């Protein structure tokens, strides 16, 4: 089962990850007459074409009638798991207001916990769906966030992405007492950046700066550091990162990461509850980097162009800076009549009598 993106007039299919497929499709074909371009010309042309296509990936997904996301090979167990999730009665919610999502049914946590505790298929369903390597790819974040209509496919089973997000929210807020259920909840929370980011992007309750996206995607993986940055740019909705586009100036790993770090630092004043101490620490971290992200001299530019940004730990520095700015900060908030529920990257905190504490 290939990946596919269905547009208004056509459908495109990918048998592997989207980013690697685009790179493959962009490779110049051997022209007629038997002549073959030089290797350097091929490489240069391929990179430029690939960058141009990366720049329109957001548009492709936003305008697609339907996006089909393949989670990998399935079996009878995964098919049952997807069907089971679609049959669970989940909570209904009112429209978003301000920075919160209001839960229409205040008692749904108790109802969900009781239903899950009595049904052994719950933990099995989570094992079959949430432990797949599919969720680790950084490109998944953009694909699922910007697509208007996504269907997840695994073997013979299928599930709408919005249903899985709703399921994840219910699990995250349930207060399980049984050990097996708590372990299942942990697996859902480990994938929180994927489904939480989808909510943040769609509802716009928290403007997404590049730094916030780097923080949420800390556990995501990319084939190279350039892809890691490019995959996030399509979701930036606030700050200097909106001006950064995949082009010939962002084709080198370390150079691209250094530019991203400078943008993250300039966007610090946009961070909610701006903190001078955190800001100063973030700047110190950038200055201490091996390739000095703040140094734009010609000598440093030559070094960064020949570096992939991994061995020099520039990618790690970007993640450190994001962690400094956002660790412990609420990323998403839900409220009931009796409590406020804050979502962090790997945990959920409940505050009783939220009106008094918020």
TrEMBL record:
Give the source lineage, highest ranks first.
Answer: Eukaryota, Fungi, Dikarya, Ascomycota, Pezizomycotina
Spell out the residue ranges making up region: Disordered: 22-42
Q: Which residues form the Heterokaryon incompatibility domain?
A: 49-143
- Pfam families cross-referenced by the UniProt entry: HET (PF06985)
What's the name of the protein?
Heterokaryon incompatibility domain-containing protein
């Amino acid at each position: 089962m290939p990946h596919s993106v269905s547009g208004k007039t056509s459908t495109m299919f990918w048998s592997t990850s989207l980013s690697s497929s685009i790179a493959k499709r962009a490779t110049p074909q051997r022209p007629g007459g038997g002549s073959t371009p030089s290797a350097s010309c091929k490489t240069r042309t391929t990179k430029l074409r690939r960058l141009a296509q990366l720049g329109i990936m957001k548009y492709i997904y936003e305008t697609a009638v339907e996006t089909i996301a393949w989670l990998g090979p399935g079996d009878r167990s995964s098919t049952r798991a997807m069907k089971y999730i679609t049959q669970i009665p989940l909570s209904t919610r009112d429209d978003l207001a301000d920075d919160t999502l209001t839960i229409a049914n205040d008692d749904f946590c108790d109802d969900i916990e009781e239903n899950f505790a009595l049904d052994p298929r719950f933990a099995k369903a989570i094992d079959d769906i949430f432990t797949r390597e599919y969720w680790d790819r950084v490109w998944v974040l953009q694909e699922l966030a910007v697509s208007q209509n996504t269907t997840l496919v695994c073997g013979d089973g299928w599930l709408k992405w919005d249903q899985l997000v709703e399921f994840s929210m219910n699990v995250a807020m349930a207060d399980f007492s049984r050990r097996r259920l708590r372990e299942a909840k942990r697996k859902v929370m480990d994938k929180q950046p994927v489904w939480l980011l989808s909510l943040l992007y769609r509802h716009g309750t928290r403007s997404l700066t590049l730094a916030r996206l780097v923080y949420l995607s800390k556990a995501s993986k990319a084939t190279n550091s350039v892809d890691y940055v490019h995959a996030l740019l399509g979701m930036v909705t606030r700050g200097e990162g909106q001006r950064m586009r995949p082009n010939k100036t962002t084709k080198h790993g370390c150079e691209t990461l250094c530019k991203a770090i400078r943008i993250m630092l300039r966007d610090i004043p946009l961070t909610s509850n701006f903190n001078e101490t955190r800001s100063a620490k973030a700047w110190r971290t950038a200055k201490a980097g091996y390739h000095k992200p703040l140094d734009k001299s010609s000598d440093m530019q030559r070094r960064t162009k020949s570096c992939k940004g991994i061995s020099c730990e520039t990618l790690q520095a970007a993640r450190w800076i994001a962690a400094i700015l956002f660790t412990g900060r609420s990323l998403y908030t839900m409220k009931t009549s009796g409590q406020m529920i804050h979502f962090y990257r790997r945990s959920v905190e409940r505050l009783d009598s939220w009106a008094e504490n918020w």
